[in-house]
Design brief:
single chain; mainly alpha; 72% helix; Anti-sigma factor
Length: 50
């Protein structure tokens, strides 16, 4: 899985600036990454195992 920087590098320069600004705003609003996927996967697995 690539990083945000890898994704930005793959974009056209005009698009890159816009998307990079959106990521910057998101990092300001949510400075600590939240790993919401693992609890959701665990909950889904628990439902399947029932």
């Amino acid at each position: 899985m690539g990083t945000i920087d890898d994704y930005l590098a793959s974009l056209d320069p005009a698009d890159r600036d816009v998307i990079a600004r959106l990521y910057a705003i998101a990092r300001e609003e949510v400075p600590e990454p939240v790993d919401a996927v693992r609890p959701l996967v665990a909950a889904r697995k628990a439902q399947i195992d029932l």
